[in-house]
Amino acid sequence: FWMVILLFVMYAALATFILYLLLRRFVARQPLSRSLRLFAPLFVAGLLGFGMYNAYTPVVRHQTVFINKKMDKPLRIGVASDLHLGILFGARQLDKLTDIMKREQVDMVLLPGDLMDDTVDAYLKENMKPHLQKLTAPMGVYATLGNHDWFRDQKRIKHELEAAGLTVLANQVLEVNGVLLVGRSDDLDRKLLEGQNTQLPVLLMDHRPTSIEAHARLPIDVQVSGHVHNGQVAPANLIVRTLYRLAYGYEAIGNGHFFTTSG
User: Fold this and answer.
1) d(CA 223, CA 227)
2) How many CB atoms are located within 10 Å of the residue 9 CB?
3) What is the pLDDT of residues 40-78, one digit of tens each?
4) How far apart are CA 150 and CA 147, in angstroms?
5) Which pTM does this prediction carry?
6) Cα-only R_g, the chain
7) In what order do the strands lie in the sheet with 249-253?
8) Structure confidence at residue 150 (pLDDT)
9) What is the DSSP letter of 105?
10) Across the chain, what does the average pLDDT equal?
11) How far apart are CA 58 and CA 69, in angstroms?
């Protein structure tokens, strides 16, 4: 949080300096100085407000893809990642997510990791379970574990997710209505497709989009990932594009279709 504040202060300082250069020939020094002193904190406050609005206002993106495997009917998939349920995100945001999935009439929901913010303490304290239980779909709600789920409170997080009705695939494969659903937890297993019937449509939940180019050579039809948050705060969104093949959005690579949500 303080790193973000410092970054916004730097942005405000830069904007204030540019305004000074533009206006110093047209506005007297004293009133210009007073105005810029007022402008700088308002600019920081505006950035914080805009950031909070973005954080708490979900945006739905639609994408239609075609795969070269036979399916009985089209499949409508809802994807949401990196909920980080905890102090900042909780029951109200879960209710929003449920409303979105119902409105979009999805057949299944995929949640590729970082559902909890390190522990289940806030989840239990705020009694979020009834709200998470509302998230349903005809073919089920499936999740895999991300780094914030896996490395600190893994057993309790998995237990609470399953208690709320989610199917957690922690480095596991499951056949669902003629679809092969794979859950890969945070770069931990690379051999989940061995011995599986990959003639079926293969959907992969992989928390980190670090292995997309390798997965494009495997019989994976659709991969959904998160983790990157599109850099969270500019200019980090530009930096992560140099670190990941697909830091945000959609790309067709080989026979596969790859998605990375900003969470």
Assistant:
1) 13
2) 15
3) 999 999 999 999 998 899 999 999 999 999 898 999 999
4) 5
5) 0.90
6) 22
7) 172-176, 179-184, 202-206, 222-225, 256-260, 249-253
8) 83
9) T
10) 93
11) 32
Neighbours of 108 (CB within 10 A): 21
Q: Which residues pair with 251 in a beta bridge?
A: 258
Say which amino acid occupies 189.
D
> Residue 241, exposed/middle/buried by CB under 10 A (0-12, 13-18, 19+)?
middle
For residue 16, the one-letter residue type is T
Q: Which residues have CB under 8 Å from 220's CB, separation 6+?
A: 182, 193, 202, 204, 256
- CA end-to-end span of the chain, whole Å? 18
Q: For residue 175, list its beta bridge partners.
A: 180
Length of the chain, in residues: 263
pLDDT reading at 189 higher than 90: no
Q: Whose structure tokens read 């709600």? A: 141
Longest dimension (CA), the chain: 77
The predicted-structure confidence for 200-222, as pLDDT tens digits, reads as follows 999 999 999 998 998 999 999 99
